[in-house]
Amino acid sequence: MSRAPALRKGLVVGWSSVPSDTHRTRNEDAFLVMLDRGFFGVFDGMGGYRHADIAAQIAADEVQETLAPLAPDASDEAVADTLRDAFFAADAAIRAEAHSRSGAGSMGTTALLAVVRPAGVDTWSTLLGWVGDSRVLVLPEGSRFLHTLTLDDSVLRLHASSATQARKYQAALGMVTDSKHLSLRERDLFLERHVLTQAVGTSLRHVHVTAHLLSDGDLLILTTDGVHDNLTDREITAILRRARSVGDASKQLVTAARVRSRDREHVRAKPDDMTAVIVRLSG
């Protein structure tokens, strides 16, 4: 599924989402776009569990419902508290759904939400809330370098002595194109990077919330791991820089990730659902 860019004064958004080749009639990703409120999210149902698609959609619905009453002029603290409430509400709803389905077992999903609001003449307040390994990236206007604003809830955290070291691991693994040049430790981390330490519906303990100040012209990119696991950060950056629009960029990202997923010889290739939501900030 791809959509042409939607426009709100100051924000332009495009998105694309496709199911994995392993289950082409069922997309286990979900996404949320509330352009009039500046709410954008992606949710990746856990493929190792049953009803992953339902878990992802429940999370998207619960987050939207919880955020809807939030006042446009709410303080950053109020937004952060509401983000946490939304994720824990989604966690409870997914657990209840799993309990109601006899034999369903556990159901879980990643959850990632960005709340984007004007902060000044040419600046934007962006609050992020996330659980799992869906990511938010930013490409500043005119920059050749992509920045990752989120840190995965993955086993990388367990192998790192600090969040700073975990971010270094995450950045390094995002550039891998050939496992031959990795040490044994790096190879193990690369192969285990998809293993989550928490998710909504199964093991939620903490919702990460961070605040960022972005500028006009910046691109905010939300992806599920089907995109950023298949593509390197350099490949993502190249696509963003050459795309004609955010709608074109989101479609190109998902298409490139799908092509890579079918290349059985490539070290990054893996079949998965793939979703990208891209927001351009502009005055």
List keywords for this structure.
single chain; 283 residues; alpha+beta; Phosphatase 2c, domain 1; 6-stranded antiparallel beta sheet; 5-stranded antiparallel beta sheet; 11 strands; 25% strand; globular
Outline the structure in words.
It is a single chain. The chain is an alpha+beta fold and 283 residues long. The chain contains eight helices and eleven strands. The protein has helices at 52-67, 76-100, 155-159, 163-173, 184-192, 225-228, 233-242, 246-261; strands at 2-8, 11-18, 29-34, 39-44, 111-118, 123-131, 135-139, 147-148, 208-215, 219-223, 274-281. The strands form two sheets. The chain has a six-stranded antiparallel β-sheet. Strands 3-4-5-6-9 form a five-stranded antiparallel β-sheet, with helices on one face. A hairpin with a 4-residue loop joins strand 3 and strand 4. Helix 1 (52-67) packs antiparallel against helix 2 (76-100). The radius of gyration is 18 Å and the shape is globular. The two termini are 28 Å apart. The mean pLDDT is 92.
Summed up:
This protein has 283 residues and is α+β, with helices and mostly antiparallel strands. The chain is built from 8 helices and 11 strands. Helix 1 runs antiparallel to helix 2 and helix 7 runs antiparallel to helix 8.
Secondary structure elements and pairings:
Blueprint lengths: L1 E7 L2 E8 L10 E6 L4 E6 L7 H16 L8 H25 L10 E8 L4 E9 L3 E5 L7 E2 L6 H5 L3 H11 L10 H9 L15 E8 L3 E5 L1 H4 L4 H10 L3 H16 L12 E8 L2
Antiparallel strand pairs: 1-2, 2-11, 3-4, 4-5, 5-6, 6-9, 7-8, 7-10, 10-11
Termini separation: 28 Å
SS element count, helices: 8
Tally of strands = 11
How much of the sequence is in beta strands? 25-35%
- The top-level CATH class is Alpha Beta
Total domains, how many? Answer: 1
| CATH superfamily heading | PPM-type phosphatase domain
Structural class: alpha+beta
The description of the largest β-sheet is: 6 strands, antiparallel
* Helical residues, percent: 25-40%
The overall pLDDT, averaged over residues, is: 92
